[in-house]
From TrEMBL:
Protein origin, superkingdom: Bacteria
Compartments, record wording: Cytoplasm
Protein's name according to its UniProt entry: Glutamine--fructose-6-phosphate aminotransferase [isomerizing]
Reaction(s) the record says it catalyses: D-fructose 6-phosphate + L-glutamine = D-glucosamine 6-phosphate + L-glutamate
NCBIfam families: glmS, PRK00331.1
Swiss-Prot/TrEMBL keywords: Aminotransferase, Cytoplasm, Glutamine amidotransferase, Repeat, Transferase
Name of the encoding gene: glmS
Species, as recorded: Lysobacter arvi
A family per Pfam: GATase_6
């Protein structure tokens, strides 16, 4: 949520800031702005809407500078207006960009008002700008002023600050929101994520909780929360520029849907040639941690939560361990009964979702020290706070709607279920070989599912004029129905709900009439006959059925019943294959409705606020 970029160099940094903001736009796209030091002046340009609009304004106003900061916003405090767009300034002397939420902004605002500060925006960020200005006016230099200011803030922040009093440095600070420093040759950068500065450098330092950093052209100094100078490791990012480009695709979501065979193969690379599930996949300490766990508690949000719901079926069926799955934002605020012998599994594409991070912290505070993170972003906050990690290797996911992250999470979770089963003596050699084969064949089966796109596109045309849709599934395919409904609503804005098919007659059947399309995930598994009965219930009320099944089900179309068949039932990993057509259905329905597929309204990637 919100993207930050900054640069100090011996060249014009405005193009670096603009390019960086375009790459960060997926984090928030309500407004964008930059502030630069131009001689003795802090100059700022802000626009509501997309970075491109702000870029035109910066060009026509002749922005050029060697030091600057930029921001792309997802509105929290205050509406989507230019006055609320970042950067925020104090007395025209210093400018601040901020990601996160300051919880004590009301108190701070009153204190600052009493000191003579006037506020132009409704944001919490303007408080930070004035607070830093106040400390500067008391004699502190910019670094000390930022360090003093952040001590007075309660909440989460990543900030970057420039001041006309100190034109040779950029100050950054973080707590609870990601921020990294990029190291160049005679130039340095800051960014919320590495994609923003990849065109300039791959060498990065990840700032840690409570760190502040002083960045000049020639040097970077980092200080911990206590203000002591510290050394932080320098990492070489392996994010490829190609993964950030659209290539021949129209949207990132389309690209990411089609990347799934590769993303899955990369994620399970280590098991592709193996003849056994090896706990080392989850970290050096994994065998010790996993061998005597007595259960699994999964915590996640959104699509990642649905991956967790799918995993519960696998973990209980394959390893015999009890597994519960909870939405992270609920878990963190209830009095949970902890069993330290249970493994806490957090699932997060971004690794920075605030609710998931806080749920993990809460679990740890309850005495859980067996923690595993399944995450797509190396070095992000959640895996760093976890004892064990399994990195999915989906590559950068830019489309706001998660696709390849979901299916790679599923294969990581299946691998976890099989590894737990093995460590607990519940996986014989023959079954282990079958599961390994199932994984090896999966990228091919996913490719076959992608080949169904023309048929799914034809369905999507029929969905486009609809206002509502129901999704049904049973057993391990019920979470896929949930995921299908979420995808459809978030990018096409068609209201969609998912139910376990057996639940239909307990209420939602009342919604079914000829105008209600009902999507059913109905592969040839043990529950197929049950699902067929549920479909009859829909047909009897005039509902139109759109059934995703497989060749083995022998299920054919009839009046009011449309059928798309994947080639063959792939057994235990069938939910992964059936995730593909529901993603494509949502994508093509959104396309037909003309929505902004990669940047759906009101949403943003990486939810780093509550
Ligand atoms: C939906 C979607 C969201 C995320 C959720 C969690 O398409 O992308 O529901 O799954 O915000 O995000 P992560 O996985 O980054 O923790």
């Amino acid at each position: 949520m919100c993207g930050i970029v900054g640069a100090i160099a011996d060249r014009d940094v405005v193009p670096v800031l603009i390019e960086g903001l375009k790459r960060l736009e997926y984090r928030g796209y309500d407004s964008a702005g930059i502030a630069v030091l131009d001689g003795e002046q802090v100059r700022r340009v802000r626009r509501t809407g997309r970075v491109a609009e702000m870029e035109s304004a910066a060009q026509s106003e002749g922005f050029r500078a060697r030091l600057g900061i930029g921001h792309t916003r997802w509105a929290t405090h205050g509406g989507v207006t230019e006055a609320n767009a970042h950067p925020h300034v104090s007395f025209g002397e210093l400018a601040v960009v901020h990601n996160g939420i300051i919880e004590n902004h009301d108190e701070q605002r009153e204190v600052l008002r009493a000191k003579g500060y006037a506020f132009e925006s409704q944001t919490d960020t303007e408080v930070i700008a004035h607070l830093i200005h106040f400390h500067q006016s008391q004699g502190a230099d910019l670094l000390a002023a930022v360090q003093k200011a952040v001590q007075e803030l309660v909440g989460a922040y990543a900030i970057a600050v420039v001041s006309k009093r100190e034109p040779g440095r950029l100050i950054a600070a973080r707590m609870g929101c990601p921020l990294l420093v990029g190291l160049g040759e005679g130039e340095n950068f800051i960014a919320s994520d590495v994609s923003a500065i990849l065109q300039a450098t791959r060498q990065v330092i990840f700032l840690e909780e409570g760190d502040t950093a002083e960045i000049t052209r020639e040097s970077v100094r980092v200080f911990n929360a206590a203000g002591a100078a510290v050394e932080r490791d320098v990492h070489m990012s392996d994010v490829s520029l190609a993964s950030l480009e659209l290539g021949p695709y129209r949207h990132f979501m389309q690209k990411e849907i089609h990347e799934q065979p590769r993303a899955i193969a990369d994620t399970i690379e280590a098991v592709m040639d193996a003849n056994a599930f090896n706990p080392l996949l989850f970290g050096a300490d994994a065998e010790n941690v996993l061998r005597d766990v007595e259960g699994v508690q999964i915590l996640a949000c959104g699509t990642s939560y649905y991956a967790g719901l799918t995993a519960r079926y696998w973990i209980e069926a394959i390893s015999g361990l009890p597994c519960s799955v909870e939405i992270a934002s609920e878990y963190r605020y209830r009095k949970a009964v902890a069993n330290p012998k249970h493994l806490i599994v957090t699932i997060s594409q971004s690794g920075e979702t605030l609710d998931t991070m806080e749920a993990l912290k809460y679990a740890k505070s309850l005495g859980h020290d067996r923690t595993l993170s399944i995450c797509n972003v190396p070095e992000s906050a959640i895996p760093r706070a976890s004892r064990l990690v399994y990195y999915t290797r989906a590559g950068a996911e830019i489309g706001v709607a998660s696709t390849k992250a979901f299916t790679t999470q599923l294969v990581a979770l299946f691998t976890l279920a099989a590894t737990l089963a093995k460590l607990h003596g519940r996986l014989d050699v023959e079954q282990e070989g079958q599961y390994l084969d199932a994984l090896r064949f999966l990228p091919g089966s996913v490719q076959h599912a992608l080949n169904l796109e023309p048929q799914v596109t034809a369905w999507a045309e029929r969905f486009a004029p609809k206002q509502h849709a129901l999704f049904l599934g049973r057993g391990v395919h019920y979470p896929i129905a949930l995921e299908g409904a979420l995808k459809l609503k978030e990018i096409s804005y068609i209201h969609a709900e998912a139910y376990p098919a057996g639940e239909l007659k307990h209420g939602p059947l009342a919604l079914v009439d000829a105008a209600m399309p009902v999507v059913v995930i109905a592969p040839n598994d043990a529950l197929l006959e049950k699902v067929k009965s549920n479909m009859q219930e829909v047909r009897a009320r005039g509902g139109e059925l759109f059934v995703f099944t497989d060749e083995d089900s022998q299920f054919g179309p009839s009046e009011g019943v449309h059928v798309i068949r994947a080639p063959r039932h792939v057994g235990v990993l069938s939910p992964v294959v059936h995730a593909i057509p529901v993603q494509m259905l949502a994508y093509h329905a959104a396309l037909a409705r003309g929505t902004d597929v990669d940047k759906p309204r009101n949403l943003a990637k990486s939810v780093t606020v509550e």
